[in-house]
């Protein structure tokens, strides 16, 4: 579905996946004026297709658009575009347990802009692709202080397209030495944990679940927000705080959250050559939270919080 500005994203078309025609001087190509989102559609055992909290993605895109001086589709336009894309590709939504349909909304400055500034025209589009289960058994993280993903006052707190390529190099270096991802420290003091490259992080110590408090250097993850609510409903104590390296090293469990990874346990964290290992698997708090979220997202648990949107009749 493609919408153009000028008429407030009202011109729409549902087209086959194909190459885009774009002006060489488009804002996105020259100045990186663009946002992305990610969601998943899941098929339930009784044949329904569910979206998880799509209005949260719409609101996050709106917030990012404001930061990047772009107009944004309304909440209704966003959710409708996602819905239409999934409905047109229903046959690509894998059966339960076999994966999901990954949905990628983009909002880009598509109009020509030669001198640095916001583009005169914008495009909102949504594409989708089936994906297998991305759930990894556990992650091996490394904390290092030579690279940062976000700086105060920058765009780390929105899903700007420009947030990702600067961390390709440190992430590929971490991967080449056997790690799955980096746990980034804050750029201002180098003392506090922020998040990994595309997921938020939590620690578990006894009955207390902690995660870094949101600020403009941390992406407000929708899975993060949902896990906080699930943890509170299970009567854990939840702290949004300044999480230090020592807190992570001292935790019983560590886990990451995100649309792609769901809730994934962290098996180890390495800092300055010291490696800490954590409990993973059956019987952990992480597994309890993971199972509950997955059950809501796949329709096997009752959704009494109204988080899922059913797109079709069973
Ligand atoms: N942090 C970053 C930098 C991300 O790219 C993502 C993925 N969207 C997340 C956290 C997790 O956010 P969500 O739970 O909304 O997918």
How does this model look, in words?
There is one protein chain. The chain is of the alpha+beta class. It folds into 2 domains: 2-131, D-amino Acid Aminotransferase, Chain A, domain 1 (2-Layer Sandwich), CATH 3.30.470.10; 139-297, D-amino Acid Aminotransferase, subunit A, domain 2 (D-amino Acid Aminotransferase, Chain A, domain 2, Alpha-Beta Barrel). It has 7 helices and 16 strands. It has helices at 27-31, 54-67, 75-88, 168-176, 222-233, 245-249, 285-297; strands spanning 2-4, 11-13, 34-36, 39-43, 49-52, 100-109, 122-131, 139-144, 181-184, 200-205, 208-212, 237-241, 253-258, 262-271, 274-277, 308-310. The strands form 2 sheets. Strands 1, 2, 3, 4, 5, 6, 7 and 16 form an 8-stranded antiparallel β-sheet that branches. Strands 8, 9, 10, 11, 12, 13, 14 and 15 form an 8-stranded mixed β-sheet that branches. Strand 4 (39-43) and strand 5 (49-52) form a beta hairpin. The structure holds 4'-deoxy-4'-aminopyridoxal-5'-phosphate. 4'-deoxy-4'-aminopyridoxal-5'-phosphate binds at residues 38, 195, 198-200, 219, 221-224, 257-259.
Question: How do the helices and strands line up, and which of them pair or pack?
Answer:
Layout: E1 2-4, E2 11-13, H1 27-31, E3 34-36, E4 39-43, E5 49-52, H2 54-67, H3 75-88, E6 100-109, E7 122-131, E8 139-144, H4 168-176, E9 181-184, E10 200-205, E11 208-212, H5 222-233, E12 237-241, H6 245-249, E13 253-258, E14 262-271, E15 274-277, H7 285-297, E16 308-310
Parallel strand pairs: 8-9, 8-14, 11-12
Antiparallel strand pairs: 1-2, 1-7, 3-6, 4-5, 4-6, 5-16, 6-7, 10-11, 10-13, 13-14, 14-15
Helix pairs in contact: 2-3, 5-7
The protein binds 4'-deoxy-4'-aminopyridoxal-5'-phosphate (PMP).
């Amino acid at each position: 579905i493609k919408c153009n500005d000028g008429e407030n994203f009202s011109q729409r078309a549902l087209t086959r996946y194909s190459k885009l025609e774009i002006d060489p001087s488009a804002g996105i190509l020259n100045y990186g004026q663009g946002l992305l989102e990610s969601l998943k559609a899941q098929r339930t055992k009784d044949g329904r297709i569910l979206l998880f909290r799509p209005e949260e993605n719409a609101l996050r895109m709106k917030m990012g658009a404001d930061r990047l001086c772009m107009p944004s589709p309304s909440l209704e336009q966003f959710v409708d575009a996602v819905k239409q894309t999934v409905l047109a590709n229903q046959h690509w939504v894998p059966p339960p347990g076999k994966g999901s349909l990954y949905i990628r909304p983009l909002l880009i400055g598509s109009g020509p802009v030669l001198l640095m500034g916001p583009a005169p025209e914008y495009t909102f589009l949504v594409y989708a692709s089936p994906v297998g289960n991305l759930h990894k058994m556990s992650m091996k993280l490394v904390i290092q202080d030579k690279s940062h993903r976000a700086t105060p006052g920058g765009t780390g707190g929105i899903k700007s397209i420009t947030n990702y390529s600067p961390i390709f190099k440190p992430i590929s270096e971490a991967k080449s030495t056997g790690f799955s991802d980096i746990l980034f420290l804050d750029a201002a003091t180098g003392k506090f944990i922020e998040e990994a490259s595309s997921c938020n992080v939590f620690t578990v110590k006894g009955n207390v679940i902690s995660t870094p408090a949101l600020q403009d250097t941390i992406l407000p993850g929708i899975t993060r927000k949902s896990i906080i609510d699930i943890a509170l409903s299970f009567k854990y104590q939840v702290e949004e705080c300044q999480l230090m390296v020592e807190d992570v090293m001292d935790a019983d469990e560590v886990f990451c959250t995100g649309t792609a990874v769901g809730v994934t346990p962290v098996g180890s964290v390495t800092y300055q050559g010291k490696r800490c290992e954590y409990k993973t698997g059956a019987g952990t708090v992480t597994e309890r939270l993971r199972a509950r979220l997955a059950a809501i997202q796949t329709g096997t648990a009752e959704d009494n919080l109204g988080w899922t949107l059913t797109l079709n009749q069973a």
